[in-house]
Amino acid sequence: MIKIAVCGANGKMGKEVVNAVKNADDMELAACIDIFNGEYESIETAHKEKDIDVLIDFTQPKSIYENAKYCLSNNINIVIGTTGLSDKQIDELKSLSKTNNTACFIAPNFSTGAVLMMMFSKMAAKYFDNAEIIELHHNQKKDAPSGTAIKTAQMMAENNENFALGNCEETETIKGSRGGNSYNNIHIHSVRMPGFMASQEVIFGSSGQTLKIRHDSVNRECYMPGVLLAVRYVNDNGGFVYGLDNIL
Predict the structure, then answer these.
(1) Fewest CB within 10 angstroms: 14, 19, 156, 247, which?
(2) pLDDT tens profile 33-71
(3) Which residues are catalytic?
């Protein structure tokens, strides 16, 4: 049995993860960690009392980096679903994972449909010189743009050097109206509004045509198969992985 600790266990995603772990035949819920009425208030206190093979983190951007460093420095494999890590922080966690021979799995999105959307967008990037990303989330999401949008842009940029080919010189009369200019001139627009959970649309354009690739998450259950897949992967294989697409 894989002994699992869930950090952020009382959050909306955390509760789904707890239920998924309880229903998995090969996993045992060892600890529920949450600063708000959790069985344990910190990873450190849980680690003192419980054996933990894998920690699943769905907390907040301000805490995930320190949580990950603690796990990787104390031989606890970690699966990270919290977004908001910078490129520099990801590189540092990758180095720490390698140095301490402890697994670290970071996924901007655990939905298989969303991962396929990213993979299809990377494929399409070879054939279009213009592209933009619109990501839409609930108004309680604290980081922007989403990790999924960033990962999508990174994957697309591997197949094209400039996604603003032929665009005229622009002037923003309202700052930020063109979104954030990310990898290889892919503009990312972030929407935060009640009623949304998680959606993303990638729009490609060329003379006389557009192509739209969109994914919508209807509920949080859609992420659980990907989370459990990542847990099993790090438990069996170790190493550092960024993106669910690497193990599908």
Answers:
(1) 19
(2) 999 888 999 999 999 999 999 999 999 888 999 999 999
(3) 137, 141
Q: What's the half-sphere exposure (Cβ side, CA atoms, 13 Å) at 24?
A: 22
Domains plus CATH for the chain? Answer: 2-106+220-246 (3.40.50.720), 112-217 (3.30.360.10)
pLDDT confidence tier of residue 73, bands split at 50, 70 and 90:
very high
* Per-position DSSP letters for the chain, written without gaps between them: -EEEEEETTTSHHHHHHHHHHHT-TTEEEEEEE-TTT-SBSSHHHHHHHS--SEEEE---HHHHHHHHHHHHHTT-EEEE------HHHHHHHHHHHHHHT--EEE-S---HHHHHHHHHHHHHTTT-SEEEEEEEE-TT--SSS-HHHHHHHHHHHTT-S-SBTTPPP---SSTTTT-EE-GGG-EEEEEE-TT--EEEEEEEEETTEEEEEEEEE-SGGGGHHHHHHHHHHHHHH-SEEE-GGGT-
Mean pLDDT of 224-238: 96
Tokens coding 42:
């910190």
Tokens of 227: 């989370």
Q: Rounded CA gap, 199 and 98, in Å?
A: 33
Antiparallel, parallel or unpaired: β 209-217 and 2-7: unpaired
Q: Under a CB-based contact definition with an 8 Å cutoff, are residues 143 and 65 in contact? A: no
| Lookup: tokens for 213 | 């690739």
Residue among 188, 112, 181, 185 at smallest CA distance from 147: 188
